[in-house]
């Protein structure tokens, strides 16, 4: 169990994190959301033991980070946004070094190495120099170093930033595999990514925790009056050309639709639709038959989550 | 202790895996070779003991410059490349990080200076050299190197990049050397204070002549310990920034 109580962190007079409190249960995968400057990275750095909190307490299974910092850090694996890697070392040598730094014996390091390489999908790169690796593989080596000593809590700061779609898919698999062994805290701007990987989300705004949603995306989406429930594939976001009232009437009358919200923006009708089943084609056929122009069809869940995120973190004018 | 040795081994490996380490090694050997042949042996007849004394005197230059240059990347490079985060989020203390880095740099400097031992041995070809004088001289070089590398490590701990660390480390070593000159123009009791602080003059010369001066060893150990302590404090302070 990870307990964070009234955590605050100042840089001089500037308060980066203010009175943040939350708990994370063993085995949970928790997402950390917030705009740039919201205090996400500072919070993660404090949790990783890199920065000392100005006030408040952080405990992992009762071990307090300020009272027993070395024991605390033994239970943490941390991957910053830019993986901390020694470019002149091979992947294998680097991981052996990390293992020994974290207190593992030489025999334990050799026993653990194949497991970690398999988890991070790095088996074929063990002898390659880190300087020769692509960005995606560097991220994986970063994850491998974070989990090498079997920490209680793995902290990943923007683990998917800068990855191409193929690397993103690989990274998603790696992160999901981590959950079997550790509690995972992920910070990301990639909202669909968070919704696919995390059990729960914490939203930070100007250093304060503004939202804690337990069922992603339903709770977070509901926060801004969106539609909740149903599998992700049943959520569709539509940009239409037509009359607002006519579209609303069509959607309300359609047996395909469980619920919808409709609004007019810049001459278009934006509709967020929750379908009864995974049948967006049938809905689109109905709309086209009624003379409504289809300009765009999107994954509704991603759009909804993004709206929720922007609403929650919006600055007051 | 294991963590200290692991960090030291990694540091030593980083010199051997980089062009930087080999360039410093080559330059020190080149300079020491020239100093031995041109300055120490020279072209006029000399006593063997004087040849050795002058070689050890010239060797202090490479110990001091080499010490600063080898200590320069120890912590500043980790900071600029982001790998200091790896160390500071591992279950090791700041003292262990500093000690490991320091031992790595000092080991490499010792290794390089160890490679020059054949030069004093060459004096045996045309003269007679005292191995006690060689031993005392190299002990003095090691003690001086230990102090200089500690000063350089401190400069590296408080600098954002390696260049700044080199300039700062060089300046600090320069101040400690110039304390000798300041002592010459000072009145008591400051005269003796500056004379004691001087890194080279009073403390190194006995070693050149084959005498092991305990007071000087204590001085070099104190300088090394003091700057390593400051380096540890500087790293700890980073967690509060």
Outline:
Helices cover 36% and strands 29% of the residues of chain A. With 317 residues, chain A is an alpha/beta fold.
Structure description:
The complex is a heterodimer of chains A (about 325) and B (about 240). In chain A, helix 3 (about 90-100) packs across helix 4 (about 105-120) and helix 5 runs parallel beside helix 6. Chain A is of the alpha/beta class and about 325 residues long. Chain A has two domains: about 1-220, 3-Layer(aba) Sandwich (Rossmann fold), CATH 3.40.50; about 225-315, Alpha-Beta Plaits (2-Layer Sandwich), CATH 3.30.70.3100. In chain A, the strands form three sheets. Chain A has a six-stranded mixed sheet with strand order 6-7-8-3-9-10, with helices on both faces. Residues about 220-225 of chain A have low confidence and may be disordered. Chain A is built from eleven helices and 14 strands. With about 240 residues, chain B is mainly α. Chain B has one domain (about 1-240). Chain B contains twelve helices and no strands. In chain B, helix 2 runs antiparallel to helix 3 (about 50-70), helix 3 crosses helix 9 and helix 4 (about 75-80) packs parallel to helix 8. The longest helix of chain B has 28 residues, at about 130-160. Chain B is globular and about 60 Å long. Chain B starts with a helix and ends with a helix. The mean pLDDT of chain B is about 90. The interface between A and B is medium-sized, with 27 and 24 residues.
